[in-house]
Amino acid sequence: MARVLVIDDDEEHRTLIKAMLVSVGHHVEEAVDGAEGLKLFGKRAPHLVLTDINMPGLDGHEVIAALRVANGDVPIIAISGGSAVAKDELLLKAAELGAVEVIMKPFGFEQLKGAVARALTP
Question: For residue 105, how many C-alpha atoms fall within 13 Å in the half-sphere facing its CB?
Answer without folding.
Answer: 20
